[in-house]
Specification:
By secondary structure, the chain is of the alpha/beta class. The chain has 16 helices and eight strands. Helix 4 packs parallel to helix 5, helix 9 packs across helix 11 and helix 12 packs parallel to helix 16. The chain binds a DNA duplex through helix 15, strand 7 and strand 8.
Length: about 400
DNA sequence: CGAGATTCATGTGAAGTATACCTTTAGGCTTAA
DNA sequence: AAGCCTAAAGGTATACTTCACATGAATCTCGTA
């Protein structure tokens, strides 16, 4: 594309009538002013946290519910308001928010605390320090605030699954050591039975209070979508039935509002890109595929080389032979592939772990079965929808060839 | 024929190793008085 | 003499390896009916 053409493209682009007025309103990190159908939970959280405005220490709170039930948004909504109120009343109150699942930022004890320090505006080495040292730095930095610190740990179940519950125990204990500050833990979890797996000491102090977020039903999802759409779109661009269909799709997935909104946004983006000035039903199906593809691609890209090589092995084996393969077969394929790309071959032990990591990421699914006389293995199959096999394969091949 | 014993292929836990990175410390060099 | 830089020493987290043991149902074995 020459310069002239390019400029023309941009001019056309701006001149064209899109469907959006305020695209932001549909993005996942958008915090709307009101959260429909969560009035009850807002009230509860507010009640629990309110003592902080009288300089008291609220109970630790544990929030759980499935993905996309508004846990994060509701909590942040209340916390934000609380902070504002505190500022007006001149009460020292701070909050830290960490998402434990986010891209290897906080998936071990060390990294979580390091991340907390960074959130508090401190800096800390990424590795090398003794963990006690990191805790000490954290204590000091918190204590220096002379404030009540609301520590919001999102997706806390992921963290504990990977790093154990000792971290929580340590954090719960922190208050005893702090002289001038206090912290309050707000744990958010997708896993409903998560608390039961915790050490009893941790459980009792972490979930002094508990709030459950029930999934949205289809009607509530429609409500949410309608509200957001009013802000996001020009009037009349959303075809009859689109909202209903998005809501229905998301309701099918345990009432995931995030998914519903994403579906809506991507549908609209596809409509816009396809030169349509209306969002139609067929865009939704396209959007669903695109979302899944983007998710898979995103995950794959962020994986280390060895995991990519493993996944590639699985992909090739399932394609060549059959749908379901065993660990041994994967390892054989992996050995040839790793030597082809000049990657140091890892042991089967490690590959076994990598396979279960991939399982956790939802890219493959595994099931351990015993075949009696013929041993025990996991049955591995791809959890990627077939339409994006090719793209995935290409991506992996590229990623590996470059090394 | 049926109850145990066996067997296979791998899951899984624990402990050890390599690597990359951190802080501290000691020595050597430079600099300013 | 004081200040600054460098390199070595001593320490840690993480990713991986090594070793060893655990699993669990199809199959085998062998005593018994």
């Amino acid at each position: 594309m020459g310069d002239g053409e390019l400029r023309k493209f941009f001019e056309d682009y701006t001149a064209r009538d899109g469907v959006f007025v305020e695209r932001k309103a549909l993005q996942t990190n958008y915090l709307p002013d009101s959260l429909p159908h969560r009035e009850e939970q807002i009230k509860q959280i507010a009640n629990i946290l309110a003592p902080s405005l009288r300089r008291g220490r609220p109970s630790n709170l544990f929030v759980y519910g499935k993905t996309g039930t508004g846990k994060t948004h509701t909590t942040n909504h209340v916390v934000d308001n609380l902070i504002t109120a505190a500022k007006e009343g001149n009460i020292p109150l701070k909050n830290i928010y960490v998402n434990c699942k986010l891209k290897r930022l906080a998936d071990t004890e060390y990294r979580l605390i390091a991340q907390l320090i960074r959130e508090m505006g401190g800096s800390i080495a990424a590795t090398g320090l003794p963990t006690d040292e990191v805790y000490k730095t954290f204590f000091e930095i918190v204590d220096k605030q002379k404030a009540l610190v609301l520590l919001v740990l999102d997706e806390i179940d992921q963290l504990v699954k990977k790093a154990g519950d000792e971290i929580l125990y340590n954090l719960v204990r922190v208050n005893e050591e702090l002289k001038q500050s206090q912290i309050v833990l707000l744990g958010i979890s997708n896993d409903l039975v998560f608390v039961d797996t915790l050490d009893p000491r941790v459980r009792s102090s972490l979930s002094e209070e508990e709030i459950v977020f029930p999934p949205y039903n289809a009607f509530q999802l429609q409500d949410i979508l309608r509200k957001r759409s009013e802000v996001a779109f020009k009037s009349g661009v959303v075809r009859q039935g689109v909202i209903e269909k998005c809501a229905a799709y998301a309701a099918r997935e345990h009432g995931d509002a995030r998914r519903a909104l994403e579906l809506m946004r991507v549908s609209a983006e596809l409509a816009e890109r396809g030169d349509s000035d209306e969002v139609k039903l067929e865009h939704i199906d396209q959007a669903e595929e695109k979302i899944e593809r983007d998710r898979v691609i995103d995950v794959i890209k962020s994986q280390p080389k060895q995991s990519q090589a493993t996944l590639y092995s699985i992909l090739l084996s399932t394609k060549k032979e059959k749908q379901i393969i065993s660990t041994g077969e994967v390892y054989n394929a992996y050995k040839t592939i790793s030597s082809q790309v000049g990657l140091r071959p890892l042991t089967q032990r490690r590959i076994s772990d990598i396979i279960s990591e991939l399982d956790m990421l939802g890219i493959i699914s595994t099931k351990i079965i015993s075949k009696g006389r013929y041993g025990r293995t996991s049955e591995i199959s791809l959890a990627i929808p077939p339409p994006i096999f090719d793209r995935t394969e290409q991506l992996l091949a590229e990623g590996l060839a470059l090394s």
